[in-house]
C-alpha cells in the first residue's frame, strides 16, 4: 500500500460485504457498515445516495445525513489494525 499524502482523495465508494473506499492513489480502504450507527441502520439505497465533499476529503450520505472523513477513516483503520496485532 502506498503512503497516503495530503493529495490523496476519495474517488468513489463500492458497497459490498463492506464499504470499499477507492482513493486517488489507487489504494482501497474498507470499513464495516457498523463504522457508525447511522451507516449500520441504513439500507443499500440510502447508502448509494452519497456525494463526495471537501473535494474528496469526505463523504456525505444524503438520506441519513451522515458525514465521514478520510482522516477519520484512516485513524479508525490505524487504531483497529494496531489492536488486532
Task: Explain what this protein looks like in three dimensions.
The protein is α+β, with helices and mostly antiparallel strands. It has a single domain, classed as Uncharacterised protein PF10387, DUF2442 (NE0471 N-terminal domain-like, 2-Layer Sandwich), CATH 3.30.2020. The protein is built from three helices and six strands, in the order βββααβββα. It has a three-stranded antiparallel sheet.
CATH superfamily: Uncharacterised protein PF10387, DUF2442
Spans with pLDDT under 50 lasting ≥5 residues? none
The total strand number stands at: 6
* General shape: globular
Number of helices: 3
The proportion of residues forming helix, as a percent range, comes to 25-40%
Q: What's the architecture, going by CATH?
A: 2-Layer Sandwich
In CATH, what is the class? Alpha Beta
The biggest sheet, with number of strands, parallel, antiparallel or mixed sense and barrel status, is: 3 strands, antiparallel
Round the mean pLDDT to the nearest integer and report it.
91
- The Cα radius of gyration reads 12 Å
CA(first)-CA(last) distance: 18 Å
Amino acid at each position: 500500500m502506498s503512503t497516503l499524502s495530503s493529495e490523496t482523495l476519495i474517488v468513489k465508494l463500492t458497497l459490498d460485504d463492506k464499504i470499499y473506499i477507492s482513493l486517488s492513489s489507487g489504494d482501497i480502504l474498507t470499513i464495516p457498515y457498523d463504522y457508525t450507527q447511522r451507516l449500520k441502520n441504513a439500507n443499500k439505497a440510502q447508502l448509494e445516495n452519497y456525494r463526495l465533499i471537501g473535494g474528496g476529503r469526505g463523504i456525505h450520505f444524503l438520506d441519513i445525513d451522515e458525514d465521514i472523513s478520510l482522516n477519520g477513516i484512516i485513524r479508525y483503520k490505524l487504531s483497529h489494525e494496531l489492536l488486532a496485532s
